[in-house]
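To the structural biology subgroup,

Please find below the input and predicted structure for Phage holin family protein, which we are adding to the shared reference set this quarter. The sequence is reproduced verbatim from the submission form. If anyone notices a discrepancy with their own records, reply to this email rather than editing the shared folder directly, so we keep one authoritative version.
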Amino acid sequence: MNFIIRLLITTVIVVLLCQFMPGVSVDGWTSALWVAVAMGILNATLRPLLVFMTLPATIVTLGLFLFVINAIIIQVSAYFVKGFMVDNFWYALLFSIVLTFFQSLVNGKQKED
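Predicted structure (tokenized):
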């Protein structure tokens, strides 16, 4: 049940961010839901592999390289989900930072209740 709630929260955040951010767009709620599903799957499968392969860069940058990995996950999601477009890497990086921030806020509020 908790997974479904997080999925729906991510869907809402993706739709809202695409309304306000240039360079990132989503066609509708269905595409946003598929983006949330794709990101969940990619974070469970591709992210650990990327983190392992880029461990030296992550250590040297004190963890800031993880934002680059998040941007790559966003771009791969845009490749697989029809109706979700990201213009370039920098928009994906900005989108991933803002998405992570709002997910942290909402998940932190959810744990308080």
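Summary notes: The chain has one domain: 2-108. The chain has a mean pLDDT of 93.

Regards,
Lab coordination
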